[in-house]
Structure of Proline utilization trans-activator:
Amino acid sequence: MPPAKDPMFGSEKIWVTRGLIEDLERQAQLHQTRNSPGDARNYENDFNQTDVLDEGQTTVLPTENSPGGTPSAQLTNPFSHHAPRPWYLGVSSNWAFNRRVLEIVHERLTGVHAPTDNLSFDGTLYELGWNGERETAGSQHLVPSADYAMFLINAVKFHCGQMFHLFDETTFMQGFKNFYDSPADADIHSFWYIHFLLILAFGKAFVARKKMPRKAPGSDLFVQAMKLMPDIVFLIEQPLQAIEILCCKALYLQCLDFRCAAYNVIGQALRITLEQGMQTDMRNQGLDELHVQRCLNVFWTVYILDRQMSSLMGVPLALKDSEISTPLPTFAGAPQKSMALQLHVKLSKTIAQILNTVYGSEGRLTKRFIQSTKSSLQSIAEVTVQLRETFEELRGQSSGGLSRLAAHLDLLHHQCVVVATRPLLFSLLNKRFDEPSGISSLIKSSSSAKALLQMCVESSQHIVAVLDRLKDQSLLESFLPFDLEAASAGSMVILIAPVLDANLLSSSAPWLDILYSVLDEMVAQGQVQASKRKEELQRLQQVFEQLPLPLTETPEVQQPAPLDSGQDGTNAYSTIPGNGLDDFGFMDDAIWRTDLTAEQLMAVADSLDLDGFEWMTTVSSGLGND
């Protein structure tokens, strides 16, 4: 145990040892156990609070005079002993949601916090081999030949160009020609050269065959670009290309699981777009049309990345939709590309709507939960119609393979459903520990709750089905993080549902097996994050297997009497007959069997009411503060 530090008199904080904190935690837990039988902690509140994971060896406690500061307020933070700094648990973050579930189940079963060993944290999976220092002088770095560089650029266009605007092809390729026509005269400190290195870094990541642990393909090119990149003060000299460079930087960092850094970088890009007035209608202002179209492409790419990165972080949004008046760009002769961007923007707006309304202030579920969810589902339903009309392959009517762009939008579409409805799943999981025998009847008593839960489960199943189809067609993304985030969102719902009610999902095992095969494919392609997500999912599955079967009063699926856990420690719910893939129709057309139509979404949205949700809006749950 480290020695106690000297008190810091004259300030508002005092330093205490880790041992003292552990003793206080044990005393607090003992006190809670004595005074609240059967309910050690009210976790229905915890999901909706801005928790911080404080994992330093020494903990700073607020004094009595510090704002909101009693020692007990700090004792409820999970994962509090091993990592070097605090971590914020965002309300809509998949990463945070999974850790909340792990903490709740582990502590309610064992009485102690979940250990943090082998859990991944931001920026810890890859080594960049760089200390952050910039390069002020130097010679030209090694770059590939022109033909190989062109190959890498085309790889970036396939993997990213359909979803994001990372460079303006006309001006970028003119710089490409100038560079290879006269490489000796190239300015290695120019914006174009920095941009070029970043695009090559992406290209190498997409085509690399040999993977190295903890070193991402192309990271050497990324680091070279970062060493040459000027300070934010000088980016304003070429704002359009500067924003494109920042988008590349943010997306690359997101791919390496540097989520906090990526979020901050895209924030810089967003502020430059605002300073340049790109959120306003720039048409008919005497500007060149090509310049205006490039500005539109740049702005909406920043918008999409900002919305998605904010959601993955679970943090408030920096720009309101009501403050945006700029139109979407036009793509002459490419109507599908125009519609794809329109859908991408609408889904990003839906993400913002969910983040702002479903979770409420500080992420708290309020009495507005039903109305907010209804409104979000209506927005999702509008996108569903356009999605199906634009991409026929998503309806199973295409003779060809699944479009990579269509799959990306479809996965994002169903993640919106999951993120909008899983707060209810989380609340029921908490209640499951307090009233194990009453969950099924509680779900049955509310048609609205049952419909939302079933929709959440079916969207998660659809996510798994789409990912499985992408795996079969060798289209899974091994570097971009979006397929992995979809897998993370769907896996937790599939894991929780059978624990609540077998009528929602009789067993998670077959679906998790498919998810594991998807993650294995990502790992084989060198995605380090997929390996950690698989380990965490398996760990959660082991914890969940310690839970007894839910007592379903009148099961709608064939199910024998509850069984005890086997000697190997596996839970009976994973061995019930009738849970094979064939039993619930997961064959080649499973991707369509689990899809949700606009009519279904609207029907559920229209039927939602407060009936049966009183338990979510009581004072004791902390959800009634509006």
